[in-house]
Automatic annotation (TrEMBL):
It comes from Natronospirillum operosum. The lineage of its organism: Bacteria, Pseudomonadati, Pseudomonadota, Gammaproteobacteria, Oceanospirillales. It comes from the Bacteria. This is YkgJ family cysteine cluster protein.
Length: 86
C-alpha cells in the first residue's frame, strides 16, 4: 500500500522518541509534527534529516485503515496499547 495523499495520521497520532528537526525531544502522541505541511505531507520526506523511524514506516491497511480518520483511530489505539504494556 502507498501512503494516502492528504493523510498524515502517522505524523500526528503516534509518539516519536527520536529527535526531529524543530522537535529535538521528539513528539508526544496526538501532537502534530512540526514538519507536517498544511497538505499533510512531510517537509523532510526524502531528506537525510528525516528520522529513521519515519523513513522506515510503511503504509499498511492494518495500520492505515480505509481513510485518514480510521488511520488516526488505529494509530491512537496502538499507541495506547504500547504505553500500557508491561
Amino acid at each position: 500500500m502507498d501512503c494516502r495523499p492528504g493523510c498524515g495520521a502517522c505524523c500526528v497520532a503516534p509518539s516519536i522518541s527520536s529527535p526531529i528537526p524543530g522537535m529535538p525531544e521528539g513528539k508526544p502522541a496526538g501532537v502534530r509534527c512540526v514538519q507536517l505541511q498544511p497538505d499533510y505531507t512531510c517537509a523532510l520526506f526524502g531528506q537525510p534529516e528525516r528520522p529513521l523511524v519515519c523513513a522506515d514506516f510503511a503504509a499498511d491497511r492494518a495500520i492505515c485503515g480505509h481513510d485518514r480518520w480510521q488511520a488516526l483511530q488505529l494509530l491512537d489505539s496502538m499507541e495506547t496499547e504500547t504505553q500500557n504494556s508491561p
